[in-house]
Structures are given as structure tokens and as C-alpha cells.
Design a protein that fits this description.
Largest sheet: 6 strands, antiparallel
Number of domains: 2
Strand order of the largest sheet: 3-2-1-6-5-4
Low-confidence stretches: 1-7, 172-177
Mean pLDDT: 86
Order of helices and strands: HHEEHEHEEEHHHEHEEHEHE
Number of helices: 10
Helix content: 40-55%
Distance between the termini: 64 Å
Radius of gyration: 24 Å
């Protein structure tokens, strides 16, 4: 094959009709995925392929179906874990949710023997949140097909994602529905509430504080010198720092408090009542007391804003808290600042 056109005699319309039928009429997930994978290989001229499905409970990718892959290879590449830390190209695509073309497929275990590879994420959208359910990968003996031909495989990956989503919903019912809900409302790395969830909860807390005339404090916490942690220990060290800080936050706040991941290396505390400064100070001290990561001590800078003195809307409170947090960073970190220093 030259890599410029598909090998199949089917027209593009026939190809997609067969793919849609595989999902619409398939009662068994493995059968549907195997048919979709075979269609993709046929249409693009791939010599081998596989579909993996995300197992969020065990932080791994599990091999679901294969095409022209021997049993030994399938056994060796049966799972990729831990998914959040793996540098395997399949894990990278799962996290990025972006297709990946590989000019040298030697390091893709499931496709060993292939010269080049195409990896596509299986993505669905729920309540505006994109969720990766797995990956579809294809190996080629020669050059990759042309870009316009490769593009035909992306809708097929979307159909595979729909098949996986439907099977999960049908087979696991409410348990799997709870999993989707958790993915939609929590940060996958830290397990804390995500920004989308935080925004809704913060609006509710500010409105409640206004109605009841009670104080409310917002604190933004940023890991000090986070870029240095990543530079010294790589992404794995950065992720470990984020997880450990998140664990301290979750374990140290009161039942009435809300903690969430706010940005890449930032977290937020929403503390109803008058004791927000006390809680924020306790968090900062607890984080600085935790064991080093790769020999590097971890600390945070925190900026705090209070309702109604510093603002009466979430936006006003967040702006003041962020300025205060930057003042804490400039002062050396590992501290709480309640009033930002004037520029």
C-alpha cells in the first residue's frame, strides 16, 4: 500500500453505514468494537490494531479487542497502568484527548512489528465536559495514510466511544452513572471538586451569605515554586505534589468547607463563617509539614478574601484573593496574606 488511499472497495458512504450498523445493532460491546476496528483497518489499510477502555477504578487502560495481534503480544500489553503517570503513547492520548500519529511505532507495545501508527481517543461529552473512555490504535507496515484518509477514522472512533458509553450504562446501571457524574464534577488527578463544580457552589455560598448576613471567606492556595518541582522531577513529581496537597486539604478542612482544584497548581478554599483565616492558616502549616517529594519541601502561598468586606460577588472575592495570593508568593511563600500589597 502506498499510504495515499484506503484498500477497501467500499465507498465512504458504505463504510460509515457499516460502522453505524455495528453500533446500532450490536448487543455485545466486544463484537461492536471488533467490527469497528476491523472496518478502520480495512479502510485505512492497517496491518494491526487494538481498542483499549479506561478503567477509572484501577487507573488503567484495559485491552478490549485486537485486530491481527498475536496472543503473546496481547498478553504483554493487556493493560497500561497507572494511567495518570504512564508515558505510554496510548496513555498520553487518553489524557490529551487528541489524535496522535507516530512515525516510529517500535515503542508502542501492542503494535510491535508495525512501522507507523495512528492513535485516536474515544471521547464523549457530558454536560459540557469531555470524558475519555478509551483509545483506538492502528499499526501500519509502511508509511501512514494521507491526512484526509486518516481523518475518516476519527468519526469511527466517535462511534466506538458511543458504543462503550452505551455498554457501560446498560451493564453497570447506577454504579456507572455515578462514575460519569464523578468524572464530570471532580478533578481526575486530585479527586477534588473541579472548577466547573466550584463555580456553582461558590455562587450558592455567596448568595447564602448575602441572604443570611453571615461572613464567608475565600482562599486561593498556590504551590510554591511548582515549575521548579516539575523541572527537577518531571511531570510525575508535579502530579505527586498536587495529589499530596489535595489530600492534606481534603483531610484538614471542616465539614462545612469546600475545597477544589482551581488551576494548574492552584486550589481554593470556600470557608463559611468567621474562621476562614484560621482554616487557611492551618492548611498552609499542614502542607509545609508534609514529607518532601524527591528531596524537595512542599509549601503553598495563600491569599484570602472575605465577604462582604472584600467583595459581594464571586468575581470580586476571587480577584482580591488572587492578588493577596500573589503578594504571599512575592513575600517568599509558605504564608497566608489577607490584604494584597498595592502595586
Amino acid at each position: 500500500m502506498s499510504g495515499d488511499k484506503p484498500l477497501t472497495d467500499r465507498t465512504t458512504g458504505q463504510f460509515f453505514a457499516a460502522a453505524a450498523a455495528a453500533v446500532a445493532r450490536g448487543d455485545d460491546l466486544d463484537d461492536s468494537l471488533a467490527e469497528l476496528l476491523g472496518l478502520a483497518a480495512e479502510h485505512l489499510g492497517a496491518g494491526s490494531g487494538a481498542v483499549y477502555i479506561v478503567d477509572p477504578d484501577h487507573d488503567e487502560l484495559e485491552l478490549a479487542v485486537t485486530y491481527q495481534i498475536d496472543t503473546e503480544t496481547a498478553s504483554v500489553a493487556g493493560s497500561i497502568k497507572p494511567l495518570t503517570d504512564s508515558h505510554d503513547p496510548l496513555a498520553d492520548v487518553t489524557r490529551s484527548r487528541e489524535p496522535l500519529v507516530i512515525d516510529d511505532a517500535a515503542h508502542v507495545t501492542i503494535l510491535r512489528g508495525s512501522a507507523t501508527a495512528l492513535i485516536l481517543p474515544l471521547v464523549v461529552r457530558r454536560e459540557g465536559i469531555e470524558i475519555t473512555l478509551g483509545v483506538l490504535c492502528l499499526g501500519f507496515a509502511g508509511p501512514l495514510p494521507a491526512a484526509d484518509v486518516r481523518a475518516d477514522a476519527e468519526p469511527l472512533a466517535d462511534l466506538a466511544a458511543v458504543a462503550v458509553e452505551r455498554a457501560l450504562a446498560l451493564s453497570l446501571g447506577s454504579e456507572r452513572a455515578e462514575w460519569f457524574d464523578r468524572l464530570a464534577h471532580t478533578d481526575p488527578l486530585t479527586g477534588l471538586a473541579n472548577r466547573r463544580t466550584l463555580d456553582r457552589m461558590l455562587e450558592l455560598e455567596v448568595a447564602r451569605a448575602g441572604r443570611q448576613g453571615v461572613p464567608l471567606n475565600i482562599a486561593i492556595l498556590e504551590i510554591d515554586r511548582f515549575s521548579e518541582i516539575q523541572k527537577a522531577g518531571g511531570n510525575a513529581a508535579g502530579d505527586e505534589a498536587l495529589r499530596r496537597v489535595a489530600q492534606i486539604l481534603a483531610e484538614s478542612v471542616r465539614l462545612m468547607d469546600i475545597v477544589a482544584r482551581f488551576g494548574n497548581e492552584q486550589f481554593i478554599l470556600v470557608a463559611p463563617g468567621p474562621d476562614g483565616l484560621v482554616v487557611a492558616d492551618r492548611l498552609v502549616r499542614s502542607i509545609s509539614a508534609m514529607p518532601p517529594i524527591d528531596g524537595r519541601a512542599i509549601s503553598v502561598s495563600a491569599g484570602i478574601a472575605g465577604f462582604p468586606l472584600d467583595g459581594r460577588t464571586p468575581e470580586e472575592l476571587l480577584a482580591v484573593a488572587e492578588k493577596a495570593m500573589h503578594s504571599a508568593l512575592k513575600a517568599g511563600g509558605d504564608r497566608v496574606v489577607t490584604q494584597p500589597v498595592a502595586d
